[in-house]
Structure to design on (320 residues):
């Protein structure tokens, strides 16, 4: 679930046009970050990965939606290929589509439909009135705008799929997939240091095994949060093989700068608590300081004892 509390159903399409007669399409479907299924690139059948998806959608309804999706893919493939051939667009090229719908906590919804060419966004479809809008002022954006604008049946089909059917289907999926959406896994954090040069020390906080994806990782210097800057860098959140996530946060410091450092992790699975992992060097310094103090105390005690004994010796001689 996103920080705003909304939930998104996303369909991702990647179509590779090798030439005017050969094209391959792949697709994925996600409810938030849960992969629901994929598109078979050979026959455009849909493979479901989550067993509760079948329970959410009756077989008859699912068959209708699968056929609607195939019709959409046939139309969009034909339109793009025909336009590219007539206008001399160089092959090969890749067209990507990201479409779906988002439901907000107040039960309102928003549908979206974006087109990209060779990795760059070029068009979006206003699903409320069926009009295409260029994402940037480039020749390729205006070219595709001219091609798609002439095929109103494609925009009408997309409007039905994503502005109506998508929201209805997500309501059903949310009822049956609630346990998967509410799954929580606690983060595990470790802190260690690297020394790329004698003048620099890199403190690394590795956080892994957490779910869901949103997480907050910060460094504390003497209990105060380190602000963003060139010394602080955090990786993007990456997936693990067990369907959890990981990231790393690195802080560059000077060796023996005299400060204490700790990595603080906040995550939904922790509730109102925070995971605080100090850098091990601060513990070594504490132990070393305690040892030095103890040695100093012992040495002082020995000196006092010797001084007392020395003072008592003349007194004993006089008494004898």
């Amino acid at each position: 679930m996103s920080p705003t509390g909304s939930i998104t159903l996303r369909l991702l399409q990647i179509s590779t046009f090798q030439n005017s007669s050969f094209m391959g399409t792949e697709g994925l479907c996600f409810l938030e970050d849960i992969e629901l299924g994929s598109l078979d690139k050979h026959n455009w059948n849909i493979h479901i990965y989550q067993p509760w998806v079948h329970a959410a959608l009756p077989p008859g309804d699912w068959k209708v939606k699968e056929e609607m999706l195939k019709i959409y893919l046939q139309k969009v493939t034909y339109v793009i290929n025909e336009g590219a051939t007539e206008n001399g667009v160089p092959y090969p090229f890749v067209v990507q589509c990201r479409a779906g719908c988002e439901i907000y906590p107040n039960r309102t919804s928003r549908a979206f439909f974006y087109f990209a060419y060779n990795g760059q966004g070029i068009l979006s479809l206003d699903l409320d009135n069926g009009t295409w809008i260029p994402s940037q002022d480039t020749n390729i954006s205006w070219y595709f705008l001219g091609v798609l604008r002439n095929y109103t049946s494609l925009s009408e089909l997309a409007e039905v799929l994503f502005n109506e059917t998508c929201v209805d289907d997500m309501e059903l999926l949310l009822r049956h997939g609630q346990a998967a959406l509410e799954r929580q896994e606690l983060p595990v954090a470790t802190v260690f240091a690297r020394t790329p040069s004698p003048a620099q020390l890199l403190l690394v906080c590795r956080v892994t095994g957490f779910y869901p994806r949103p997480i907050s990782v910060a460094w504390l210097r003497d209990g105060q949060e380190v602000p963003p800057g060139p010394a602080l860098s955090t990786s993007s959140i990456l997936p693990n093989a067990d369907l959890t996530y990981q990231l790393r946060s690195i802080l560059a410091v000077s060796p023996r700068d005299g400060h204490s450092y700790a990595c603080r992790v906040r995550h939904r699975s922790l509730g109102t608590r925070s995971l605080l992992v100090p850098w091990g060097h601060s513990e070594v310094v504490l132990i070393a300081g305690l040892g030095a103090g103890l040695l100093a105390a012992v040495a002082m005690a020995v000196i006092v004892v010797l001084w007392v004994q020395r003072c008592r010796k003349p007194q004993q001689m006089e008494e004898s």
